[in-house]
Automatic annotation (TrEMBL):
Name of the protein: Integral membrane protein
Organism from which the protein derives: Streptomyces cellulosae
Database matches in InterPro entries: AB_hydrolase_fold
TM regions (residue ranges): 128-148, 190-209, 252-271, 283-305, 326-344, 364-383, 395-417, 437-460, 507-530, 550-570
UniProt entry keywords in alphabetical sequence: Membrane, Transmembrane, Transmembrane helix
Lineage top rank: taxon: Bacteria
Region listing for Disordered, in residue ranges: 1-48, 757-778
Length: 778
């Protein structure tokens, strides 16, 4: 991409490239790459490329020889003019984006919002589903900030700095030691340590606001559409890719919730001391008022999160400035008042034991489990209203993923707390350490990993059986060539491994259910005993006691190791381009959807990419009256479909869709049935003039769309051969590789299907379509 040059408009005042006068036979192929990204030189198969439009983040490129193709439509060319939309820098261009790994739980819970089952006539249930997911996302923000408070306030300022034996091993805590200065008072230590979680909150707020401006503030094509339902999927609605109002409200609410969490952590210990018998009456009264104000602030935050969801039928550009500015500022004021209250002089007050972390983390764990259970009930009701046999987990994918997000948040919080506690105190046991619940949660990691190991063994056994069954199919497909048992086994094994993608729902179901049960057991054990698993099992059978101690020790190290690996991977990705690209692939899949449930999740690149594509297609077809093949590979096919839904009818009549290696039905249709289900894909098939889909049995991501033809060929072409040749032939004298998910354009079928699509896109009149069939209701 660095070698690409910016193509300038003509000096004579003519139209810019791609928008000059052209005859009706002009044809364009707009290529959209998939996960991981690529360069324009690779997409266009030419070392000389120019940038037609766009910037360093996302742009459209052409071959240098085709820069002015519309000015010379009579030039001899093989096929349409190729044009590449390169969007990889939206997810993997900057090394600092590797730090988005720390926001993984937020991204996962945001996915749960979009996984709701499809439903007709159940608007209240749909709103309840969205509200429950938003509340789950809010609990994750509180959990993250509570973990930061646990590290900075409880472990460091309260326990270690208040214990001479621990503080003596860390010279940087000397000025916080009791009796060594003004900061030695417990409340002042807490007030000073509160700067750490407060700074973390400010950083999350800043990143959310900055990334919204860079990624998601793009105006979609046509901002004055009437407020109406436009089809069976929300992706066709005018305001789907522009959620300014909800994003601003959620950002304000989550920021306020984080600041209130810090304020409660600072003021709770002082209020508890003042309310003891014989405490100062004035300070006790102030503590009651402060707690009431914090409770009122928490109620306001919950009200804002529950009050309003997405408004997709129109562009929701209202800013809600009084609320967006007032709520975080009020929370910040309460934090300052809490710090002043805690820092007041209290003779005789000493730090002992732990801050009330057990209650905080226990309440969060219970609330998250309850939210997930209620969410599952709502999802089941929606699925029964409009059953979809292809939907993952029979509509329960959203609750399962939400449970996984809560588990990730708990693991990361517990890992940080445990590692910091070990670093501060080691094995000397001079401080109480983190809350007991975090130790119980760490202890359930070994049995969960054992369960995952069993499932991996089941998958391996399943792959072996599938590979044996595929051998006969491979031999039949290449019946005319000499047999090679080794070659047959390799092809069959690749097909079997590709088929394991369809077992993903079972893995998620077992993992989520086990996580819920083990988490509930940890909560009950911590609440009932008030001790760590090893201490609680003391006096039990030696086998039970030994198992509890082993799980506790192993779980602590595993949870810490996992967090260290996460940070290490992020540091490596900051310096290593290949590792950065791998992380970018994860975000390509996970950040396609707008931030509807959590404002601090990694930004949605589609809110930039989809408007880019729709603007380019609409302006080019309007200026040239030409034909356009929208060609998308892998995740690029999802962007292509989303752009086609957003096009006005006048542009859509000149567009054909060519998808290959596409997860539209295999992944998106099953996991996001409300937006990519059968009704939505069938409507897309009717909206565009023609659509063809290519896939291979060796592809673990792409698959068939499973839609019949409508006055023309079916959408799916029969699966492509992979490899193209079994052995050495005249056309393939060297062994042909097994391509799997890559190099679809190298297959002769690709050029053939593109030629047929252009033939159906007649220059004079768009190809006739059967539009008498009404689309399904949204």
């Amino acid at each position: 991409m660095e070698n690409a040059q910016q193509h300038r408009p003509a000096e004579d005042g003519g139209a810019p490239a791609g928008e000059g006068p052209a005859g009706p036979g002009t044809a364009l192929e707009l290529l959209v790459h998939g996960v991981g990204g690529t360069t324009p030189e690779q997409m266009l198969d030419d070392p000389r490329t120019v940038r037609v439009t766009g910037d360093d983040t996302a742009a459209v490129f052409r071959r240098a020889d085709d820069a002015d193709a519309e000015r010379d439509p009579g030039a001899r060319r093989d096929g349409p003019v190729p044009e590449a939309y390169v969007w990889c820098n939206l997810t993997s261009g900057n090394g600092t984006r590797a730090l988005w790994l720390l926001l993984l739980p937020f991204m996962v819970v945001n996915l749960a919002h979009w996984m709701r089952p499809s439903a007709r006539g159940r608007r209240r249930a749909v709103r309840l589903y969205g509200m429950l997911v938003r509340l789950t996302g809010l609990s994750l923000t509180v959990l993250l900030v509570a973990a930061a408070c646990e590290v900075a306030l409880d472990l460091t300022a309260w326990q270690c700095a208040g214990t001479p034996a621990c503080a003596g091993r860390h010279s940087w805590l000397g000025f916080l030691t009791p009796g060594e200065g003004w900061w030695g008072a417990p409340g002042r230590r807490l007030a000073l340590a509160a700067l750490v979680p407060a700074a973390l909150t400010g950083l999350l707020w800043f990143l959310s606001l900055r990334t919204w401006s860079a990624y998601e503030s793009q105006q979609p094509l046509g901002g004055s559409e009437p407020e109406e339902d436009t089809g069976p999927t929300a992706l066709s609605r005018p305001g789907f890719w522009y959620g300014r109002r909800l994003g601003a409200r959620l950002r304000a609410a989550h920021t306020a919730a984080a600041l209130l969490t810090v304020a409660a952590a600072v003021g709770s210990a002082a209020a508890r001391y003042d309310q003891e018998p014989g405490g100062p009456a004035v300070l006790a009264a102030l503590g009651v008022l402060l707690e009431a104000a914090l409770a009122a602030g928490a109620g306001a935050v919950v009200w804002v999160v529950c009050r309003r969801g997405r408004s997709e039928r129109r562009l929701d550009g209202d800013a809600d400035r009084p609320l967006v500015r007032g709520l975080p500022l009020a929370a910040l004021a309460l934090l300052v008042l809490s710090a002043l209250y805690a820092g007041w002089e209290r003779p005789g007050w000493e730090s002992a034991g732990r801050l009330p972390g057990n209650l905080t983390f226990g309440s969060l764990t219970f609330a998250q489990g309850l939210l997930v259970i209620v969410l599952a009930c709502v999802a089941h009701t929606l699925h029964r209203t409009d059953p979809d046999r292809r939907a993952a987990l029979r509509g329960l994918a959203g609750p399962a993923v939400a449970m996984l997000a809560c588990a990730l948040g708990g693991v990361m919080s517990g890992g940080v707390s445990q590692r910091v506690s070990d670093w501060l105190d080691g094995t000397r046991a001079s401080i109480p350490g983190p809350p007991v619940l975090l130790t119980w949660q760490a202890s359930v990691i070994p049995p969960l990993l054992l369960l995952l190991l069993v499932m991996c063994c089941w998958l391996a056994r399943r792959a072996v059986h599938l590979a044996r069954a595929e051998r006969a199919a491979v031999e039949e497909e290449y019946a005319g060539e000499a047999g090679d048992p080794g070659r047959t086994r390799r092809i069959a094994s690749v097909r079997a491994m590709a088929a394991l993608t369809d077992r993903g729902p079972r893995i998620l179901a077992v993992t989520s259910a086990a996580t819920l049960l083990l988490g509930a057991g940890a909560l009950v054990g911590a609440t009932a005993t008030g001790e760590t698993p090893g201490e609680a099992a003391r006096g039990a059978h030696p086998v039970v006691h030994g198992a509890a101690q082993t799980a506790q020790a192993l779980g602590s190290w595993l949870i810490g190791l996992g967090f260290v690996l996460l940070v290490t991977w992020g540091r490596r990705a900051y310096k290593d381009a290949s590792a950065r690209r791998t992380i970018g692939i994860l975000w390509d899949v996970g950040t396609f959807w707008p931030r509807a449930a959590h404002p601090f999740a990694p930004p949605c690149y589609a809110e930039r990419a989809v408007p880019d594509l729709t603007w380019r297609i609409a302006t080019w077809t309007r200026a040239t009256k030409g034909r356009l093949v929208l060609s998308g590979h892998s995740q690029g096919s999802v962007l292509a479909a989303a752009a086609a839904w957003q096009l006005p009818p006048s542009a859509r009549r000149r567009v054909a869709l060519l998808t290959y290696g596409s997860p539209l039905e295999r992944l998106y249709g099953r996991w996001f049935p409300a937006h990519f289900g059968p009704d939505a894909l069938d409507a897309l098939h009717r909206d565009v003039v023609c659509w063809r889909n290519l896939y291979r049995r060796t592809d673990p991501i792409g698959g068939p769309v499973r839609l019949p033809g409508d006055g023309g060929p079916d959408v799916d072409r029969p699966p492509l051969k992979d490899p193209l040749a079994y052995g050495r032939t005249t056309e393939h004298p060297l062994p042909a590789p097994i391509l799997g998910h890559s190099d679809y354009r190298a297959d002769p079928a690709f050029a053939e299907e593109r030629r047929h699509l252009l033939a159906r896109l007649r220059p004079e009149v768009p190809a006739p379509r059967n539009t008498g069939k009404p689309g399904p209701a949204a």
